Each structure stands twice: as structure tokens, then as C-alpha cells.
Amino acid sequence: MNTRRNFVKSGLLAGIAATVLPLTASAAALSAAEKKKWKHWVWTNPDLKDKEEDLAVLYKKYYDAGIRGIFFEEDSEKHFRAAKAQKLEAHRWMWTMNRRVESLMAAHPEWYAVNRKGENCITHPPYVDYYRWLCPSKPEVHQYLENEVQQILDKDYVDGIHLDYVRYCDVILPVNLWENYKIEQTKELPEYDYCYCDVCKEKFKAFRGQALDSVAFPEASLSWRQYRYNAITTIVNKLAAVAAKHKKQITAAVFPTPEVARRNVRQDWTNWNLSGVCPMIYHGFYKEPVEWIGDAVAEGVHFLGGKFPLYAGLYLPDFKSNEELKQGMQHALKHGAKGISLFGKIDEEILASLKSVSDNSYI
To answer: Is residue 254 a contact partner of residue 282, using CB atoms and an 8 Å limit?
Structure first.
């Protein structure tokens, strides 16, 4: 699963309460105590060939730059323990609803989502071959995911679970990706709209007393959208209960703003029981300027209302220079992010930029 965001790239904790800052917050300096609360993160995939002595050097540099946790896409006790030895939190980053697992698809094809055309994503994967989505309405899927989180958090070197792909398939892609797939998604197209399996239809009828097949335009039904928001939220909160039993943190990588998340992927993350959230505020995907990062953070912080902290996810290839990256970080922190989460190749200059922004008195 090391293709975590290749599609995105090529074509496509116990938490500190988030402080709501107004859009004019750039004029106000934060205190030294407030800045010490910033907690930066890195998304990465561990290379099993790495040597422990090299990891010790690398992770110390991370810590010195202000990074306090790593989301590891794969399990590697060596990497987790090396991070913890340098005072970094080590969290397991888990694909949740998107599961291209051959054995699982063969054993339980009925667990997988069906689009509005009636096509199962096993035989008709949307966009890219590894897009194989589980249906969130099935109790068996809930149990499968709970068992996996249980197994991950049972390990003493794992500090928490980080959920990714915890949503439906993108019914609408970020606008910058439309050209790559030769599509215009100015409306919701049936081949990308999930899930319309029999279980979802039955549960929707129980939810609203209405047969989904009788709805002329289901893509416009607010009740149908709400049902799907609730379906994903139920799964997240069940996994959060597992984390709570282990007294470990649970975070999630989510779409950039509450509005975009609900509209594009039926993801209502402000109502989840998390320790923290990392919205992927990848401005280039949406053809937005760097300043939009601050707008996205402000929206998320506002609607969270202090429920848990927000860490702004930045996609390093989207920035033209380290100076522009600094600007993006500043916009995020000024508007209420409790830290930055970085995705992409991290070098000495990027670490220096992160440290500089974190230490700067005018933030």
C-alpha cells in the first residue's frame, strides 16, 4: 500500500483543544507558551533497509525541527522504536475503507461497495485499479476493521492509530485532476457515486422510511447524503472506542475542509470522536493559492469548536519554493492549526523552514 497518494500525486491525539482564531489573527502574535503547544507530524512509509543508527540521527533532526509524531504507513518495529527513542510518537497509518486485498475480495466480494449503476468496485474500480471500497453499512465490515485496529494497538510500540481513506470513493475529484481522467465532474456521475448495495438500500429505508429506488434523483437527496455521513461516522466512532480501551490516540487524514469533505467524499469529520485530525489541505489539487490554506484551517477550526486539535496537512510538491512553503505554514498556524503534518520528501531545508516558522515571534 505504498501507493498511498500516488493516485493523488500522479493523476490524482489525548488532544489539546483547538483554539478558534478569527481571520484577522495574523495581526496578533501568539505567546511563547502557545507556540510550545504546536505539534508537527510527518506521513511516511518506513524503508526496512534503514539502519538504526541512521534513523536515530534522522529522528533527532525531526524532533529538533518541532516534529513530535510520525504516521507510519506500514508496520516496522525498528522504525517505531527508533522514533520513540528520539521522543517522537509513533502511530500506525491505516487504510480504512479502501481495501485492495486480493484474499478479502475473493472471500467477501459482498463486502464491497456498489455504484449507482449497480457495478461492484471489485470488477469496476473507479479511477484507478487500487480503488476498491468497502461498504460501510455492513456489520461484518465494522467487525473486520475493529479487529484490525485491535491487533495494531495491542503492540506496545504503537502509540496510536491514524485512519486514512476513511470515507466513500470520491464522487467528485479535486478540479486539478479532471484533465488527467478526461472527465468533467460538474455533477455527480453514477459510476463514481457509492454505495447502492441492497444492505444500504434496506438501511436507508429504515432510516427515512423511503425506498431509495423511488427517489428520482438520489444524488440530490439530503437524507441519502445524511445516511452516508452517518455510516462513515459510525465506523470511525467504533474504532475510536477501540483506541479508548487501549488508552491510545486515534487521528485521521481527511479532506481539506468540512464542506469539501461532505460534498466530495461523504465525510463528516467534525462529528468524529478523535484525538486530532489532519485535513489534507493540498491547495494545488484545487487550483487554489497558498493563502487558501489559511481559509481551510479557519473553516475546520470553526466547525470543530474546540472538540479536538487540527493539524494542517501540506503536500510538499505543491510548493514552488521553501519560501512559499513557509508562507503556507504561516497561514495554517495563524488561523488556528495546532501544528503541521507534512507529506512528501523531507530534506534539511524543509526541516529548517518548519523550525523557522515555529520559532518566529510574529506567528
So the answer is: no
How many angstroms separate the CA atoms of 76 and 156, rounded?
12
Q: Which residues, at least 6 apart from 19, have a Cβ–Cβ distance to it below 8 Å? A: 34, 301, 306, 336
CATH of the domain at 97: 3.20.20.80
Domain assignment present for 215: yes
Helix (H) / strand (E) containing 93 = strand 89-95
CA–CA gap between residue 232 and residue 100 (Å, rounded): 19
Q: Give the span between the Cα atoms of 33 and 35, in whole angstroms.
A: 5
CA atoms of 72 and 80, how far apart (whole Å): 8
> What is the domain extent for residue 185?
6-358
Segment 23-68, tens digit of pLDDT: 333 334 555 555 557 999 999 999 999 999 999 999 999 999 999 9
Across all residues in the chain, what is the average pLDDT?
A: 91
Which cell goes with 113?
461497495
Continuous segment of H or E residues that includes residue 142:
helix 139-153
Identify the three-state secondary structure at position 106: helix
- Determine the residue type at 221: S
Indicate whether 1 belongs to any domain.
no
Helix pair angle (322-334, 348-359), 10° resolution: 40
Whole-number Cα distances in Å, 305 to 145, 255, 301, 308, 309: 29, 18, 6, 8, 10
- The count of domains in the chain is 1
Query: Read out DSSP for 270-321?
Result: GGS--SEEEEB--GGGGT--TTHHHHHHHHHHHHHTTSS-B-EEEEGGG-SS
Instruction: Indicate if the alpha-carbon torsion angle 163, 165, 168, 172 is positive or negative.
Output: positive
